[in-house]
Amino acid sequence: MKIYTGRGDEGMTDLRDMSRVSKTSPRIEAYGTVDEANALLGTARPTGYDDVDETLERIQNHLHVLQADFANPEPDDDDPVVTADHVEELETTIDAAEEELAPLTSFILPGGSEAGATLHHARAVVRRAERRAVDFAADAPVNAEAIRYLNRLSDALFVLGRLVNARDGVPEESPSY
């Protein structure tokens, strides 16, 4: 497979159905930001915790599904799409991580260990991806489960960042007002 095609040299790109759109379209902004989040998750792995790394690997694969979902204006029955099962898997991840964590009593500053800080950074990028997806959905049909997934993913990355920091013995810091 050749890496470059030259088809994007004029600022246009192909969607999954081979229609052409501007690289600045809200659809491309949405799935491009998801790609950014996915790459950032790749920098968090390995965290040093097999269970967290396995979760992050599953999430990275889900993000590929989400990108394919956003890149496809009219998916067929056998095309990859985000489903309620993907969202439920994140909710299970959040619940399991929270069982291990002390209850949150205030806002916390993002940061901590290298992996923990990267997960907090990824959370912020996912929030941006969600905003881009909501913007994209204002003008085009979008799978609502994909937007729900992004919303839940930012929560999951927040608790995973907390979890890694707790396991690494890094105390949480509250903001001073």
Task: Give a written overview of the molecule.
The chain has 177 residues and is mainly alpha-helical. It has one domain: Up-down Bundle (Hypothetical Protein Ta1238, Chain: A). Helix 1 (26-44) packs antiparallel against helix 4 (114-137) and helix 2 (50-70) runs antiparallel to helix 5. It starts with 11 loop residues before the first strand and ends in a 10-residue tail after the last helix. A two-stranded antiparallel sheet has the order 1-2. It has helices at residues 26-44, 50-70, 84-100, 114-137, 144-167; strands at 12-14, 20-22. The model has no long low-confidence stretch (mean pLDDT 94). Helix content is 59%, strand content 3%.
Characterize this entry briefly.
The protein has helices at 26-44, 50-70, 84-100, 114-137, 144-167; strands at residues 12-14, 20-22. The chain has 177 residues and is mainly α.
**Helix proportion of residues, in percent?**
55-70%
Overall mean confidence score, pLDDT? 94
Low-confidence runs: none
**Main sheet properties:** 2 strands, antiparallel
Question: Terminal Cα separation, in Å?
Answer: 54 Å
| CATH topology assignment | Hypothetical Protein Ta1238, Chain: A
What is the CATH-assigned architecture? Up-down Bundle
Structure classification: mainly alpha
Please specify the SSE layout and strand pairing.
Elements: E1 12-14, E2 20-22, H1 26-44, H2 50-70, H3 84-100, H4 114-137, H5 144-167
Antiparallel strand pairs: 1-2
Helix pairs in contact: 1-2, 1-4, 2-5, 3-5, 4-5
Label this structure with key terms:
single chain, 177 residues, mainly alpha, Hypothetical Protein Ta1238, Chain: A, two-stranded antiparallel ribbon, 5 helices, 2 strands, 3% strand
